[in-house]
Design goal:
The chain is of the alpha+beta class and about 240 residues long. The chain is built from five helices and 14 strands. Strands 8-7-14-6-13-10-11 form a seven-stranded mixed β-sheet. The longest helix has 16 residues. The chain is elongated, with a radius of gyration of 21 Å.
Amino acid sequence: MAESDGPHLSFAPLGDRALLIEAGDKVDPATTGLVAAVTARISNSPPPGITDIVPAFCSVALHYDPDALGEEAEGAAPYDAMVARLQSLLFDLEAISPFEGRTFDIPVVYGGEHGEDLAALAQACGLSEDRVIEIHSAQTYFAFSTGFAPGFAYLGNLDPQLRQPRRDKPRVRVPSGSVAVANGFTGIYPLELPGGWHLIGRTPWSLFDAGRNPPALLEAGDRVRFRRIAAAEFDAAARAQSWR
């Protein structure tokens, strides 16, 4: 495993056509910021042969075509040539200003048909439904990573009082905009999808639209606050197809 001379990044092969850049082993805003900086730097100045960039909580996976490295790989294994190029590209990454995400106040109607697991979650946590809503909407969440589906952001840290494992039996269909919790995270289903998180509410906002630029509303480093609304406000916003 190779290490860079600048920020604490380590490199490891993933087969013969990919490698992993590890930015840390702790899920926190600092690691998220470093992952975002690495991703941005490589996206803006990609070395020859890069075919895909996949950021995660604490790492970035790079897929590449070894044959595209050309003369750069002459006399060296493609992996070693790519790591050398990346170390040169990323050596001064600490000089980049920290990534400043945006803050969104997202409206949510809690419970009832829009959050059918709220009552069961409240019972499992030993709380009233109103108390679950109060706790969930009281804090600002940090988007540590995106994944699972286009536009889905893992928002933490969820208050320990609301932490429950995933449902024993996932649903085949979860409505778009559903606000859910599981383990230490909360999140919003960007599309109608299968899922096993506990549904506690729903937002009329669209988290993903392929025709929008960018298509995903949230990205790693953003912050989210949830604002409780009435069902009538949700219905009006949904009819208007409002997302902001």
